[in-house]
């Protein structure tokens, strides 16, 4: 199994859930921009599940040498990579912040997924799970750079699913609403609409087993987004969302 964004608590909870359910992986490749924190998780799964894992450094803001990944083979890729950035007015007009959000959520991430998608395609097997966001469904003033990068990522996953369908590779898009993780630490989230990493992992694992194409984390978000998508633009543009 390949994990992108290994310090994500959702990614870690998904790995644990899969192992608890008896999924067998020859090796778990933990891609991370934060080796130290990932080492703790790697040790944890090595001890608890006698699972072989390997940590691979990947910082999407730096140059990537794909030859280093040539030996990696797997049939499951879980991508939890994401970056919220600064959604304030200062953040919006700070080009560094804007570029970083676009790079980590979309432009630098897509080539990495493509690299592994091609491997899956040539072996005619595998599943790619990508965590996008409900933020990608409609641009809102509070986080539309992040939302637009996620919209692009959602469209990418949809196209990849379509492209790989006949090649026997499945692509699942996950659209989380709020999740209580380090990304949202300190934000005033409504607890009724917020999933814990464990809850999120359970939703995602169940959708993975059912080979879903698109899934929301916490079903209530599919209803919320149905409403949000259908608010007429002349009303929507006046809302403080
Ligand atoms: N939390 C929410 O409410 C929420 C809502 C909707 C969607 N999402 C999406 O769900 C996914 C998981 O998010 P999370 O809540 O678990 O947040 P998170 O803990 O911040 O996870 C995102 C991961 O992205 C990786 N990452 C960040 N910068 C990177 C860089 N420069 N290069 C490579 N990797 C980088 C990090 O993994 P490493 O440290 O291992 O590199 C980080 O753990 C993300 O795609 C996020 O956008 C989250």
From TrEMBL:
Oxidoreductase recorded as keyword: yes
Transmembrane regions listed in the UniProt entry: none
Keyword Disulfide bond listed: no
InterPro entries noted in UniProt: NAD(P)-bd_dom_sf (IPR036291), SDR_fam (IPR002347)
GO molecular function annotation: oxidoreductase activity
Pfam families reported for this sequence: adh_short
Xref: Gene3D superfamilies: NAD(P)-binding Rossmann-like Domain
UniProt keyword terms in alphabetical order: NADP, Oxidoreductase
Origin superkingdom: Bacteria
Family membership noted in the UniProt record: Belongs to the short-chain dehydrogenases/reductases (SDR) family.
Protein known as: 3-oxoacyl-ACP reductase
The organism of origin for this protein: Chryseobacterium aquaticum
Lineage: Bacteria, Pseudomonadati, Bacteroidota, Flavobacteriia, Flavobacteriales
């Amino acid at each position: 199994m390949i994990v992108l964004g290994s310090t994500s608590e959702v990614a870690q909870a998904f790995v644990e859930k899969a192992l608890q359910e008896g999924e067998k992986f020859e090796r778990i490749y933990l891609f991370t921009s934060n080796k130290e924190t990932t080492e703790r998780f790697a040790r944890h799964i090595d001890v608890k599940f006698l699972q072989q894992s390997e940590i691979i450094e990947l910082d999407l803001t730096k140059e990537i040498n794909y030859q280093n990944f040539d030996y990696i083979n797997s049939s499951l890729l879980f991508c939890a990579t994401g970056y919220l950035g600064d959604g304030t007015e200062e953040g919006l007009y700070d080009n560094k912040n804007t570029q970083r959000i676009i790079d980590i959520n979309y432009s630098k991430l897509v080539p990495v997924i493509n690299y592994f998608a091609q491997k899956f395609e040539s072996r005619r097997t595998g599943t790619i799970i990508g965590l996008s966001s409900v933020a990608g469904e409609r641009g809102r003033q509070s986080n539309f750079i992040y939302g637009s990068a996620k919209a692009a990522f959602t469209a990418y996953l949809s196209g990849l699913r379509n492209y790989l369908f006949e090649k026997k590779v499945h692509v699942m898009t996950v659209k989380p609403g709020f999740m209580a993780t380090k990304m949202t630490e300190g934000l005033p989230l409504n607890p009724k609409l917020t999933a814990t990493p464990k809850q999120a992992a359970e939703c995602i694992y169940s959708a993975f087993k059912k080979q879903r194409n698109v899934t929301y984390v916490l079903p209530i978000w599919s209803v919320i987004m149905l409403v949000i998508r259908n608010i007429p633009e002349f009303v929507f543009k006046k809302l403080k969302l």
